Amino acid sequence: MSGPGIAPEEVDRLYDKLKKEAEAGGYHLNPDAEMTKALVKGLLTNEKRYGYQACPCRLASGRKEEDLDIVCPCDYRDADVVEFDACY
Amino acid sequence: MEVEHVPGKNVGHAMLYALSTCPWCQKTKRLLNELGVEYDYIDVDYLDGEEKSKVMDEVKKWNPACSFPTLVLDDKKCIVGFKEDEIRKALKK
Q1: Of A12, A26, B2, B68, which sees the most CB atoms within 10 A?
Q2: What is d(CA B61, CA A56) in angstroms, rounded to the nearest whole number?
Q3: Under an 8 A CB cutoff, do B45 and A59 touch?
């Protein structure tokens, strides 16, 4: 996994925050915590790299105005959740 | 271009387009490693400018949605996403 300089504590902190926000919005984080934490690490990597939390599974341009649709939670989340029960 | 080569059993040319940040791409790499097959991969998020556009044009040919992981086998078959069973089946030779 890439993401030099991402401390496990940072991952845990964002994970807890996202979990609270997700639950409050009627969503659940993937119960596979290892997988979800890898995603969270990807979000933090992208935040360090681009300045915003672009989806780790989509290619960001590095220009925020072009990437607004893929900032987590992205515009494609609900369609993915309906089709696959998870986002990609 | 940053094409990484992973040595292993030759089952034809396997080319994986991935993102370093994406856990589904990591799972795909782990599966290919577990299967012990020879493959190449590019972490497209490490590329910039012209190189990035060139690689994305290649991905687009196989997968117009340009999503990841995109696995191209022998320049013939393309598997989009971490589809474990499909990948295992396609690489069983």
Answers
A1: B68
A2: 22
A3: yes
